[in-house]
Amino acid sequence: MTDTVRTPARSRVLIAALGLVALTVAVLQTAVVPVLGVIAEQLPASPVAVSWAVTANLLAAVASTPLLGRLADLYNKKRILVVVLGVVLAGSLLAATTSTLPLLIVARVMQGVSYALYPICVAILREELPEDRVGGALAMLSGALGFGGGMGLVATGLLMHGSAGYHRVFWLTTIFTALVMIVAMAIIPSRPANGEGTVDWLGATGLAAGLSGLLLAITQGGVWGWAAPPTIAVAVLGVVILVAWWWWERRLEHPLVSIEMLTRRAVLLTNLATIFVGTGLYFGFLGMTQFVQMDRATAGYGFSASVLYASLVFLLPGAIAGVVTATLSGRFIDRFGARPVLVTGALTGVVGFLALAVAHDRTWQVIVAGVCVNAYISLAYGALPALVVSEVAGRETGVATGVNAIARTVGSSIAAAVVAVLLSHVSSRTGLPPEHSFVVIFVAGAVTAALALALIAMSRSTKRTATTTVDSLAMNHEWG
C-alpha cells in the first residue's frame, strides 16, 4: 500500500470510481428484466425462449465469478477488472446491434461476467485502503449496488416509453460500460501481483458445472416441470459434481476455494444468510414491480402503473433511501459493528415486508414499505461482505467475496422461481394472479429476512482478530 491512497481525498476518488464499477453490476442486472416482454414481441420469440436471456446471464455469473475472484487474488487486480469490463462492453455492443435471439443470449452470457466486478472491487479496496476505511468503503459499494438497481429500472422506464425498441436498453449499457472502463483505467492504481499459489482450473470447471446444474434446475424448473426428468437430472448432476468438487479441493495445497475457509462457522453462516438476503431482494423487486402494474379495474388490486410510473413513483424513493442508508451504514458499522447493523437492517426488512403484506391499497403505503425493504437490502449488502472480509486473509478476499456474491445470486434465482410459480396461477375470472399470491410473496420476504437475522446472530466469530477487524472497524474512521 502506498501513501497516496492513505489521503482522504485520494481515498474518496478511488471509492467513487469503484462505486461506479459496482453501479455497472446493478444496472446490467435490473435494466433487462422489464423489457423481456418487449424482446419477445420484437424479435419475435416465445417468452420461454426469451427467458434464456436471463438464465444464461445467471449461469455465466455463477460459472465465472469464483474463478475471476481467484484470478484477482493472484494477479494484477486492475488488469483483471479492465478485462472483465472489456468483455461486458463487447457483450453490450453485441446485444445492442443484433436482432436474433441466439446472439442476444450469447451477449447476455458475456454480460454475466459483470457479477465478478463487485468482489474484484472489494479486493482492490482491501489492497489500497487502510484497514480502518474498508468497512465504510464497502458500505458505499453496497449503496451503489442498491442505487444502480433502482436507476436501472428508472432508465429503462424512460427509454421504453411508448413503442421504443429494446435495443435502446443495450445501447445504454454499452455507453455506460465504456465510460466506466475509461474511469477505471484512469483512476484505479495498478499494483504488481502479490498472490501465492496457482489457479485450480479443474476445480474452477467443477464448481462452475455444479453450480450451473443447480441454478439451471431452479430457473427452468417452472418451465420443464419441477418433477420432470430434466429438472431432476440436472439438479442431481449438479449435486454430484459439487460433492466431487468438494473432495477434490480438500486434497489441494492451493485450491480454488479453501474448504477450511468455507466451513469456518462465521463464513458459512454469513453465506447462508446472504442466500436469504438475495431472496429478499427479488421478493421485493419482482413482487412490488408486478404488484403495482396490476390493472386495478380488472384484478381489484394494484395501481395500473406503467413501467415508467412504477419506476419513478414506487421504486425510485426506495432506491434513493437505499443509497442514503448504505452511505450512513459505513459510519454505523464503524461505531457499532457489522453484526448489529445487519440485525437492525433485517428487522427493518421484516417490518417492511409485513407492512406490504397487510397494507398495500394506497400509494404511500407501498412507498413507505418499499423504503424499509430497500434500507434492509442496502444495510445487508454493506455488512455481509464486511463480515466475510473480516474472516479471511487478504490473499483470499476476491474468491471469498466472489462466493458470497454467488450466494446472493442463488438466493435471487430461488426467489425469482418462487415468484414465477406463485404468479403463474391466475384467476379464471380475471386472467390475473389473485391478490393472495402477492401476499404470500411479501410474507416470504419477511420470513427470509428473519432467517437472515437468526443466522447472523449465530455467526459470532471464534477468531479474535475477526471481531476487531470489521465489527469494530477502527472507531477513529475519518472521511476527511
From TrEMBL:
User: Where mainly found?
Assistant: membrane
Tell me the compartments it is located in. Answer: Cell membrane
Q: Which SUPFAM superfamilies match?
A: MFS general substrate transporter (SSF103473)
Q: Does the keyword S-adenosyl-L-methionine apply?
A: no
Gene3D superfamilies (alphabetical):
MFS general substrate transporter like domains (1.20.1250.20)
Q: Which InterPro entries match?
A: MFS (IPR011701), MFS_dom (IPR020846), MFS_trans_sf (IPR036259)
- Key words of the record: Membrane, Transmembrane, Transmembrane helix, Transport
Q: How does it sit in the membrane?
A: Multi-pass membrane protein
Q: Can you tell me where the transmembrane regions are? A: 50-68, 80-97, 103-125, 137-160, 166-187, 199-218, 224-248, 268-288, 308-329, 341-360, 366-393, 405-426, 438-458
| Stretches assigned to the Major facilitator superfamily (MFS) profile domain | 14-463
Pfam families to which the protein is assigned, alphabetical: MFS_1
Give yes or no: UniProt keyword Lipid biosynthesis.
no
Q: Which PANTHER family match?
A: MAJOR FACILITATOR SUPERFAMILY MULTIDRUG TRANSPORTER MFSC
Q: What is this protein called?
A: MFS transporter
